[in-house]
Amino acid sequence: MTTGTYILPTAIYVEKALDRSHAVHVMDDRAHLVQRDTVPSDGRVIKIDGIVAPGFLDLQVNGGGGVLFNDEPSPQAIEHIRDTHGRYGTIGILPTVITDAPDVIDRAADAVIEHGPTDHVLGIHIEGPHISQGRRGTHSSELIRPFDERTFATLCRLRDANITTKLTLAPEVVDPETVHRIAKLGVIVSIGHTVASNAQTWAAIDAGASCATHLMNAMPPLINRDPGPVVAIMNAGLACGIICDGIHVQDEMIKLALRAHAHPDRIFLVSDSMPTIGGPDQFDLYDMTVRLTEGQLINSEGSLAGAHITQAEGVARLVNAIGLNVVDALHMAIDAPANVMRRSDLKNVDGRSISDLVILSNCAQHTTMLHAILEKEWAGEPAQ
Prior knowledge:
Elements lengths: L4 E9 L4 E2 L2 E6 L2 E6 L8 E11 L1 E6 L1 E2 L2 E2 L6 H12 L3 E9 L3 H14 L8 E4 L21 H12 L4 E5 L6 H9 L3 E4 L6 H10 L3 E2 L15 H9 L2 E5 L7 H10 L6 E4 L11 E4 L2 E6 L2 E3 L5 E4 L3 H10 L5 H8 L1 H7 L15 E4 L6 E3 H9 L6
Parallel strand pairs: 1-5, 6-9, 9-10, 10-11, 11-12, 12-13, 13-14, 14-15
Antiparallel strand pairs: 1-2, 1-3, 3-4, 5-20, 7-8, 16-17, 17-18, 18-19, 20-21
């Protein structure tokens, strides 16, 4: 690729701020921040009406490009899913295997271990199978089961291989002593798919649970005399994933969560996306066909089965439907998930490959991969 190109965007996103004093110098396919007043007058300059930012991170990705991780737990499938989401601005994913037979979960773990952790594949999210029957959603009732030593052995194997591992469980299914035992491995214990009482939820938090999976989804509603898990999670200030597709959580509830949470900067955007992203409009899950209908993924039981939304679309909705400013929306899709993964390096523009950076319109309505814009410019086409 061409080197020595200077990009002058409207702003550069730098960890909860918009930087207007720097330009991006592209050299050997790497981005380097330089002061705008040092850009040479005879240099190759591309002016862009938009915001340069690190690519998005998504900690709940079930599939993409027609592939479901549960059905194809292999390194090749992981790469295919990641590449699919990468076209839409998501450069780092946590492949998610939902409730399934022990052999399937073991093969998913093997696939991530074989692939290894990278800037683009951040680890693994095991969502279930130790969850509530009453709040299982699309998860198979027959495959939900109590916590057992086989799951613990799988978690040990993942951590021995230095794989960042997130496990979603229900506090009423997994006792506090076991939660503590799991958390001591360095596993991110995430509360989800639960009907736990407020007291049970606090017990899990005190034992080491540090995260919540798709806040408000697959959880009891807020009730004044029975606060349940949602209130405990928000009062404790846990890191929380949330889906912003206008379907899984009503927009007013997202606004409430962002105001009520003890540490709103720990709320991160997730897609909970399925194979329909960049793929066909239906797929099979547990021998049931899931169809995309009016933006919703519905299984034959009538339950929501994941979401049909990209992180870029979620960011746009955070700005244009929820009313966040662009900085706070980008924080939810970049910094907050990077903090959960303990990957501060993924929050930076400086020093990154240009294939890991995006350009957003100033209102976040549109997202484009930076390298795509540069390739057009270098080919003699207009940058935008």
